[in-house]
Amino acid sequence: MIDDPDFAEAGAIAAMVAARRSSAAAIVEAVLTRIARLNPVLNAFTAITAERARARAAAIDMAVAAGGPVGPLAGVPFAVKNLIDVAGLPTLAGSRINRDSPPAAADAMLVRRLEEAGAVLVGALNMGEYAYDFTGENCHDGPSRNPHDPDCMTGGSSGGSGGAVAGGLVPIALGSDTNGSIRVPASFCGVFGLKPTYGRLSRAGSFPFVSSLDQLGPLARSARDLAIAYDAMQGPDPADPVCAGRPPEPVLGALARGAAGLRIAAASGYFRRGAEPAALDALDRAAAALGATEAVELPEPDRARSAAYVITTTEGAALHLDRLRRRPGDFDPDVRDRLLAGALVPAPLVVQAQKFRRWYRDAVLRLFDRFDAILAPATPCVAPRIGQKTFTLDGKEALLRPNIGIYTQPISFIGLPVTAVPVPGPESGLPIGVQIIAAPWREEVTLRIAQALEDAGIARAPRPAAIV
Amino acid sequence: MDESDEQSRDLDALIEAGARILGLPVAPEWRQAIRLHLAISLGHGQALAEFALPEDLDPAPVFAA
Fold it and tell me: Contact B22/A352, CB-based, under 8 Å?
């Protein structure tokens, strides 16, 4: 049996199942039992696909018994943010309005690919409405709660994904990241999260938010599990016009190389301004462990954030314009009012934002001539309390919702791959994360560095003391 | 009338006209939040408008026929 089944890594679970030292059925039952016990506290799941999971687990056990090949995720439970299609469930995208939509006719491409690798879907996860969120709060389903302190935010918008992985409900979850929605909950919940290069993974069968920026990716409790899941999901998909035609570039085999030979710098200037001591301490400890002594300033990061902000609010408004007309009272008011404002932003500013995006991309990519990776804080602070509206940023009181993503937005704005790693402080407390940022299509670099930090004992997903 | 009053009045005019033209409902109790978010967005837009970019720079999304 696995020593610590609730917090076992996906790779270990799959090895046990393949070797018939445990059955997929037993693992799935244990996970369903744990979800039933802890979800009332964490509010991570909005749907549990128990019968589907049992059937899938039985099929895997039969395949193992027959001596057939099983995938690298054999018997590994996983769950998906509820903007990702699950056949038979309405794709809520955190909204009330989508509850009236017909159930999805088929699974999203990434669900299919994970299941082809042997993984077992156990449910759909809570999220901020229509992904326009950094908090993990949801006025329809209630807030996702942080396993390290259920009175605190998970971060969002993939809040249920962060909470479910951190709380030991599943070893792998899928989230989406438009401006930071994988990296923020990874930071607040103390787990690993991969936002791949824009266009790397298929988004087919997911409810969009900002097509210019949207990307799907995994959250897990180790770099290795991120790599296994990521490798299983790669590949072109004509159903997503943004998905690149590149063949899969597996990364798992490269992890053992660690950070050897990589040129790593730490972001300075904008990326240190306003950060709480915990965020800077995590960044500095990661940089020291990697021997990253050089500091680098990104060009115009504040304007990059501004451009991401403008593109987000206007594309989001365009997506929801008809729903805003027909059912404004059914939105989360915090989301509705921002979308209504976004609908009124003059078009020339949007085009200027997209032109700036071109300029900024070219300028940032030049930095990768000198460095293979850049480290930056993932969030300016540890998880705020649920319901909190403002926080102190750079010595001034600022609105929380629009500002949690100040360090993530300038990175996803140009589609760079990022692995967020949890870097717990020397004293127990709420976790916080560090971003490992690389040039486009260099996910391997971010995951090798994540593995190196894990091996050095700097990065780890702390087991929450607040729940058993 | 100070500058902030003038800006609020301009934003209210934009909200009223824009919402009417786009057919968007704006309840009176929503207006303050919409004005706040619109001011934030326009502030970000202004930061971009002030940044000189080459005229021949292509916007980021490039359509391929």
Answer: no
Residues A107, A44: Cα–Cα separation, whole Å? 20
Domain tally for chain A? Answer: 1
Any catalytic annotation for residue A157? Answer: yes
Q: Is A466 part of any domain?
A: no
- Closest-CA residue of A relative to B42 is A345
Domain annotation covers residue A467: no
Contact A349 B42 (CB under 8 A): yes
Question: Do residues A162 and A188 make contact, with C-beta atoms less than 8 angstroms apart?
Answer: yes
* φ/ψ (deg, to 5) at A89: -115, 140
| Per-residue pLDDT tens over the stretch B22-59 | 999 999 999 999 999 999 999 999 999 999 999 999 99
Within a domain: A468: no
CB A375 within 8 A of CB A437: yes
Residues of A in contact with B59 (CB under 8 A): 351, 354-355, 357-358
B51 touches chain A (CB under 8 A): yes
Q: Residue A391 maps to which CATH number? A: 3.90.1300.10
Q: DSSP secondary-structure letter at A385?
A: B
Which residue in chain A has the smallest CA separation from B31? A337
In terms of residue numbers, what domain contains A236? 5-455
> What secondary structure does DSSP assign to A241-269, as a single string?
TTS--PPP---GGGGGGTTTT--EEEE-G
Question: Tokens 């895997």 appear where?
Answer: A60
Query: What value of ipTM does the predicted structure carry?
Result: 0.95
Lowest mean pLDDT among A7-21, A219-233, A418-432: A418-432
In a domain, A164, yes or no: yes
Question: Which residue shows structure tokens 């589907």?
Answer: A52
Does the annotation mark A428 as catalytic? no
Q: In A147-206, at which residue ranges do the beta strands (DSSP E only) sit?
A: 149-153, 172-177, 192-195
The reply to whether the predicted model has a pTM over 0.95 is yes
Residues A234, A199: contact at Cβ < 8 Å?
no
**HSE of A362 in the Cβ direction (CA atoms, 13 Å)?**
11
